[in-house]
Specification:
Number of domains: 2
Strand content: 15-25%
CATH topology of the largest domain: Nucleotidyltransferase, domain 5
Protein name: MULE domain-containing protein
CATH class of the largest domain: Alpha Beta
Largest sheet: 7 strands, mixed
Organism: Heligmosomoides polygyrus (Parasitic roundworm)
InterPro entries: MULE_transposase_dom
Oligomer: single chain
Order of helices and strands: HHEEHEEEHEHEHHHHH
Pfam families: MULE (PF10551)
Strand order of the largest sheet: 1-2-5-4-3-6-7
Length: 283
């Protein structure tokens, strides 16, 4: 069968077992309708839980839906011990409603609850400022802390700042995992690997299988070498150190003054923190 024919044989209505199952013959495609697919490896999710899963980071990318330019590939990444990140779940959908996000997140939460052996999943969840997804997560996972992406927040704040003539921003108490940059970096890798927008569903699923294999390797390595340092660019290490330093300096000032700061001190802190906003930073 030619490449074009093989592409046409894989559709939102029909996915062959070669792509619906993982390499170990366990299920990869877990939810299947003509409008939405949900893919995940239970083995990878369980390994992530065993390796100290503490944060979930989610974001969507347009142009990866096989037939709808406005559809999205929505990926939920897991971060273990604050440093090892792997994609846990992939959803292909042509809608962004609360009911869609409820289906996606409830699917993941059910697996997490089973893997962790409890229902009070006190994780940190970082998403963009999309109301439908935030409402779904908060309803399904009330014990978790839901945070908006600092970069998306900064962009929205900066638009309002420009309207008002202000020049400051801050996100208090977080010196790592402040943004969805893990997801954004993955999206860049995805675009480069597939080479074009709207790839065939077959090509996309083949790539997701490859991503799963890489994720399994990262988790196995983390199991064997849990103390290994996370790989960061030198400039990102310096930026994190500066962010932590500014927050600690302000925290000590709060303690000295009985949790009261002057407007001038708050303005100074916000201006200093505003220097660390960057579309390319790994915060």
């Amino acid at each position: 069968m030619g490449c074009g024919n093989r592409d046409r044989a894989v559709t939102m209505e029909s996915v062959p077992d070669s792509l619906a199952l993982s390499a170990d013959r366990t299920r990869f495609l877990h939810y299947h309708t003509p409008d939405m697919h949900i893919y995940y490896s239970e083995n990878i999710i369980r390994r992530a839980c065993d390796n100290g899963l503490d944060t979930l980071i989610a974001d969507g990318i347009f142009g990866m839906h096989p037939r709808d330019r406005n559809g999205q590939l929505y990926t939920i990444h897991g971060v273990c011990n604050g440093k090892v990140d792997v994609p846990l779940l992939f959803a292909i959908t042509d809608r962004k409603s609360e009911s869609v996000y409820t289906m996606i997140w409830s699917t993941l939460f059910n697996v997490l609850e089973d893997a962790m052996g409890r229902q009070d999943l006190a994780l940190c969840v970082v998403v963009d400022f999309e109301r439908a997804s935030i409402k779904a997560i908060r309803r399904l996972m009330p014990d978790s802390r839901v945070e908006g992406c600092a970069f998306h927040f900064a962009r929205a704040w900066n638009r309002k700042r420009d309207e008002l003539g202000l020049r400051m921003w801050s996100k208090w108490g977080r010196d790592v995992l402040r943004t969805t940059n893990i997801a954004e970096t993955y999206h860049s890798y995805l675009r480069a690997a597939l080479g074009a927008k709207q790839p065939s569903l077959r090509r996309l699923l083949e790539h997701l299988h490859a991503v799963n294999a890489k994720s399994l390797g990262k988790l196995v390595h983390h199991e064997q070498y849990p103390a290994a340092d996370v790989s960061l660019r030198p400039r990102d290490i310096r930026r994190r150190e500066k962010v932590s330093g500014e927050m600690e300096r302000c925290r000590l000032r709060l303690l000295e003054q009985g949790e009261e700061l002057t407007t001038r001190e708050i303005n100074r802190y916000c201006r200093r923190m505003a220097r660390f906003v960057s579309e390319k930073s790994n915060l």
